[in-house]
Amino acid sequence: MTEIERPAAPLRTETFRKARPDIVGPDAPESPFPIYMTGVVQKGFGRGGKDLGCPTANLPDEDALESMRSTTKTGIYFGYARVHPTVAETGKPGDVKDEELETYPMVMSLGWNPFYKNEKLTAEVHIIHEFSADFYGHRISVVVLGYIRPELDYTSRDALIQDIEKDKEVALRSLARPAYKAYETHAPSKAPSPIPY
Q1: Distance CA 7, CA 111 (A)
Q2: HSE on the CB side for 85, CA within 13 Å?
Q3: Parallel, antiparallel, or unpaired: how do β-strands 75-87 and 138-149 relate?
Q4: Contact (CB, 8 A) for 79 and 110
Q5: Alpha helix locations (H) across the chain?
Q6: How many other CB atoms are there within 10 angstroms of residue 93's CB atom?
């Protein structure tokens, strides 16, 4: 993947916050969605859970990001994600409980996280489920179904947290529509395929 420089992100304004919709996208995913990604979860900076109350599965691997970077722009996206049962490096089961190996809604930040001035493009996936254990080293599968908003810079952590919480609400409402919900479970042959292992 070609090395790219971190662009400047627009500053989030109060006008933007007040104008945010509760649901985004058409009634069914449209091109370039769905976009499938898979990768091994790597340790990030530990900021998602500690600073923001929003733990993320980090996919900094260039191959995992290529399917998104080649067809979309940086920003916040929504869809579904699933954690695989074994640790990729060892092939042995991890600490995630069997009953948690389901497909869950997710929001994903694709970009440089301008508030923290990251120097490398990453995909940070927040799975909307409270897991019993970390899953570093596990492979995850993600299906991206739509775009929520552009990547923004912030003047405060509180403003960033406020937008993250809104992103989760928007994702859940947007995924509640039948054509999106079809990606959550195994469906009849005419429906979209579930996230593959």
Answers
A1: 9
A2: 8
A3: antiparallel
A4: no
A5: 14-19, 47-52, 62-69, 157-175, 178-181
A6: 11
CA 127 to CA 107: how far, in whole Å? 7
User: Partners of 11 in the beta sheet?
Assistant: 153
The reported pTM is 0.82
Residue by residue, DSSP assigns 74-102 as SEEEEEEEEEEEEETTT-SB-SS-GGG-S
pLDDT per residue over 38-95, tens digit each?
A: 888 887 655 555 566 778 888 866 666 777 877 788 899 999 999 988 887 787 888 8
Cα 100 to chain centroid distance, Å, stands at 18
pLDDT tens, position by position, 24-54: 999 999 999 999 988 888 876 555 555 667 7
Measured distance CA(75)–CA(146) in Å, rounded: 11
Res. 2 pLDDT band, cuts 50 70 90? very low
At residue 78, the pLDDT reads 97
Is 118 in contact with 175 (CB distance < 8 Å)?
Answer: no
Q: List residues with catalytic annotation.
A: 124
Strand (E) or helix (H) holding 39: strand 35-40
pLDDT(123) > 90: no
